[in-house]
Amino acid sequence: MRVRETVIRPIGNSAGVTIPKETLERYDLAPGDRILLQETADGILVTAFDPVFDKAMSVYRKGAKKYRNAMRELSKR
């Protein structure tokens, strides 16, 4: 795993980070691509956006909400 340092820069009323060219190429990313930021116990995890995974998580969230009580009961066993 490579560790790279970057700088947070102001962009209008927001802020953004620059990603080194080598890293963009390694992960097949380009300006305009969507990425995900996930807060973890160790810091912020940045990953490429995956529309298939996003759809799967959407389906999961709906099912988890609808069947919350059933899942809670099943977890007791």
Report on the structure:
The protein is α+β, with helices and mostly antiparallel strands and 77 residues long. It has one domain (8-75). Helix content is 39%, strand content 26%. It has three helices and four strands, in the order E-E-H-E-E-H-H. The protein has a two-stranded antiparallel sheet with strand order 1-2. A two-stranded antiparallel sheet has the order 3-4. Strand 1 (8-11) and strand 2 (14-17) form a beta hairpin. It is elongated. The mean pLDDT is 87.
List SSEs in N-to-C order. Answer: EEHEEHH
Q: Which term fits the overall shape?
A: elongated
> So how many helices?
3
Q: Note the main sheet.
A: 2 strands, antiparallel
The helix content, as a percent range, equals: 25-40%
Number of strands: 4
Q: How many discrete domains?
A: 1
* Helix-strand makeup class: alpha+beta
Strand content: 25-35%
Arithmetic mean pLDDT: 87
- Biggest sheet, spatial arrangement of strands: 1-2
Q: Would you identify the regions where 5 or more consecutive residues have pLDDT less than 50?
A: none
Set down the secondary structure blueprint.
Layout: E1 8-11, E2 14-17, H1 21-26, E3 35-40, E4 43-48, H2 51-66, H3 68-75
Antiparallel strand pairs: 1-2, 3-4
Provide keyphrases for this structure.
single chain; alpha+beta; two-stranded antiparallel ribbon; 3 helices; 4 strands
Describe, in short, the structure shown.
This protein has 3 helices and 4 strands; from the N terminus they run ββαββαα.
